[in-house]
Amino acid sequence: MHQLVHGLVYAESPEDAYTTARDEVFETVVTEGPADHYALFNEDLDRSPIDRWSDVPAVARVDDEEGRRLVERGWESSVDEYRKRFDRIEELLSSQDREAFWKDGMVHSDYAHEFRSLGQRRGMSTFLYDQNGEGVRHREHLERIEDAVDDLDLERYQNLELYIVPADLQY
Question: What is the average per-residue pLDDT within 118-139?
Answer without folding.
Answer: 83
